[in-house]
Amino acid sequence: MEAIFYPQTHTFYRKRVLTHPLHSSLRSIIFSTTRRRRGNAASSQCKVIVSSQWSIGGPPRRLHSRFSALRPCCHGHPLTTAAAATKEEKYYEVEVDDTEDESDSDVGEEKYTQQVKGKGLRWADVDENALDKAQKSLIEALPPKLSGRSKALLKHIICLSEEDDPSELIMKWVRIMKPKRVDWLAVLKQMEEQNLNHPLFFKITEIALSEESFEANIRDYTKLIDAYARKGNLEDAERVLGTMEERGFICDEITFTVLIQMYSKKGNLDQARHIFDKMKLSVLKLDQKAYGSMVMAYVRAGLPEAGVSLIREMESKSITAGKEVYKALLKSFARQGNADGAQRVFNSMQFAGIVPNLNSCTILLEAYARAGDPDQARTVFENIIKAGQKPDDKCTSVMVYAYEKKNLLGKALIFLLNLEKDGFKPGAETSAILIDWLGKLGLVEEAEELFDEISKTEVPSKVLVSLWEMYARAGLQEKAAYTLGLLQKNSQDLNVNGFERLISGLLAGGFVDEAKKIQDKMRMQGLTPPEPIAVALTP
Q1: Which of 202, 294, 307, 415 is the Cys-Cys partner for 298 at CB 3.0 to 4.6 Å?
Q2: Is residue 172 domain-resident?
């Protein structure tokens, strides 16, 4: 190659002599490259000037490896006659591979255009006049440090609907912009953070995994499997797993752990156990997360004893379970009223070096309360105070519940009076249990007095449920109807147990229509009615 000065245009050119495979004579092809800058980024504009010494066959089909296409741009047809080979310059549209240019990483979407004399392959920007307010705000919110390539694609993605297929858009982006892995990751991260057309996130991620420029690894597949699992799409997660294995990737510890979590959350204990056993038989080393995931699978299945067995296995291998795993086991035993199991887990926590906090102590207290052992529950309560912790309303309500289980109202009142001397005032949790208890005993006036005390502040829905149940049992229809109206307006903080109590009470009184309305509110809040309630309200 040699540099020459072309007098007609006063420009330096690079001259390259190539041999066309279909012609024996030499063809002279002169290339000129000019550089222009817009903002902080540079872009290339390439002009191809074809010499007049073409033979009747026209220009060579392939000029150089840097050019992937060469098409006439003046008359729309190839040069096929000698008459066409005049001294006039002919311009051809080309696609240029600019990967050798270090400035590519900062090229903006408007600047990243290769064209020949005004006609080239351009990345069309979005039509700003066709954007709505939401789309404009999302585009304006894109980080300024985002690369031009990434921003160019994100603008178009924002304009897509959930039903659109982004495949053609992505292929065009890959062909023109020639993205690198960092550009792909920036696009996916931005979509995930801003929730840009969330269903498209999964479609585009799957397309990215199949693209060579994305340079996919096993962690990329694991993240997508986990994302599908969190969304509840088990079939899609398994499909991606199959694709991953077909492409030669082998599951590692993290992938196995994600699969165990996925199946356990779906209630598929057998499949979770199968994955865990498969992991054991492999050369992979079981770590804290893998064991913890399997323990949680047993907890969700209502088998805390099996989870404790895994804890023992972990201890034999000097692996310490996480605090959340112990807490989950504690809750599981407490729900079952298994005080012995809860106490064993509580002791294991301390042996593992985990200092029990007020929350874990309250769970242990609940286990003894549900087991019907108020004396041992009181011992736990006193130990909380001795440890320097101050019992809160939740902890106190569990202690009152322990007395309520054995109908020891006198002890409960003395207990509360002693706490009041130390400055304690019953909150929503404790008041709800007391009102419910007094209502069952037929002490309506006493319950109303307590309600008047706490109604000076905002009244939680669970207190209203207890009050409504009391009025319903006492046959006070007007007061029950008024309280029910309050509940229908303020049911946002009701949990599944509160809704179940309310619906069961309405069904017991024959108010089926009202029960259906409450069930609809329950579903609107994203809660699933218990099976007995759903069956009772099924037409």
Answers
A1: 307
A2: no
pLDDT exceeds cutoff 60 at 410: yes
- Considering only residues 215 and 29, tell me which one the structure prediction assigns the higher pLDDT: 215
Lookup result for tokens 């924002």 = 158
- What is the residue range of 101's domain? 2-121
- Identify the pLDDT of residue 200: 87
Q: Which residue has the tokens 């992937």?
A: 68
Rg (CA), the chain: 36
pTM: 0.68
Over range 279-287, report the average pLDDT. 89
Burial 253-264 (b: 16+ CB within 10 A, else e): ebbbbbbbbbbb
Query: pLDDT tens digits for 115-127?
Result: 323 335 678 888 8
19 belongs to a structural domain: yes
**Secondary structure (H, E, C), 440-454:** HCCCHHHHHHHHHHH
16 in a structural domain: yes
Strand ranges for 82-159 from DSSP E: 92-93, 114-116, 119-121
User: Dmax of the chain from CA atoms?
Assistant: 115
Q: Please give the Cα distance from 484 to 479 (Å, whole number).
A: 8
Domain count, the chain: 1
DSSP-assigned letter for residue 71: E
Asked whether residue 196 carries a pLDDT value surpassing 90, the answer given is no
Beta bridge partners of 32: 47
Q: How far is CA 31 from the centre of its chain?
A: 51
Nearest to 304 by CA among 262, 260, 351, 340: 340
Cβ within 8 Å of residue 384, ≥6 positions away: 358, 361, 365, 391, 395
